[in-house]
Amino acid sequence: MATNLVQIKGTEIPTDGAALNVANRLYIDITDNDNDLSDITTGKWAWLARGISEITPSWQEKTQKTAYYDEDGHDDTEVTGKSMQLAVKGVRYLGDPAQDYIDGKQYAIGSAAKTRVLWINNGMPVVSACTLTAVTPTGGAADAQQNFSLTIAFNGAPKTTSGKLTLTETDKTRIFTAAVDDKTPAVPPTGTHDTSNQH
Predict the structure, then answer these.
(1) How far is CA 149 from the centre of its chain?
(2) Is residue 186, in this structure, part of any structural domain at all?
(3) What is the pLDDT of residue 84?
(4) For the whole model, what pTM was predicted?
(5) Which of 84, 42, 87, 76 is CA-nearest to residue 178?
(6) Is the pLDDT of residue 196 over 60?
């Protein structure tokens, strides 16, 4: 199929100035693999975007406050632990691979609720084992679209890629494979899934 339409100049996502949330990307590994944190290429990454209106990161921190004699009785705060999570909200979109996968986890417990997440935050790929929690794939008023929400809880320390990440869409729409070029410095992802081919 020919590609003969291009984006109108000025409608691109800005790469300088005020950062827009839409520049970030969120993917879920639909292979149920939460053990392999050494190789991103083993995943099938479903883009969680269709029907999604909000993605909000937050960090739960454990801190220890201690007052030392040489600090005149004032506390010194040390971060001793940290966990990250992404709160995702939107409307249910039937047939979307990422949403359909998450919908299948609403009753899951234990390892069945675990997989991997890829969050591209202002161009930086962040990969982590995760647990899909508070999965709510339906609900709301009778005359409204169904609600869709979940919290993606990161497990352990997240990682990034060792080189340039390329995401390529498979023959199944909105599911991508990942490749990393270790000889090229890590930069914002390129390939068939960039800002000029996001719809």
Answers:
(1) 14
(2) no
(3) 97
(4) 0.87
(5) 42
(6) no
